[in-house]
Specification:
By secondary structure, the protein is mainly β. About 0% of the residues lie in helices and about 50% in strands. The protein is globular.
Length: about 120
Amino acid sequence: QVQLVESGGGLVQAGGSLRLSCAASGRTFTPSSMAWFRQAPGKEREFVARIAGSGSNTLYADSVKVRFTISRDNAKHTVLPQMNSLEPEDTAVYYCAAAGWGGNYRVRDYDYWGQGTQVTVSS
């Protein structure tokens, strides 16, 4: 079994920054892609960012492009999104996900999920 553990969430003022982290552990597993999704109260889970391969292949939701940057440590199977210029609309539970094969922007692309970490941006 593969476990994903997120960390780094918290409360931040609008315009501030947070860096999340997701570590994969468990059976030998090299994710094809790792991604972040988020879910605000009363809304569906939505794609935030994905990183694939060695880390040069990235994809961002339009709402976070330019403000968020995702990186990956393949040796440690961690993915590290840097979130800058945070807005109250970014408030949500953020989930890490990993795909054994492929992996794009859809929830169904991913095989493993973390428990989520809360990010709250105050205005």
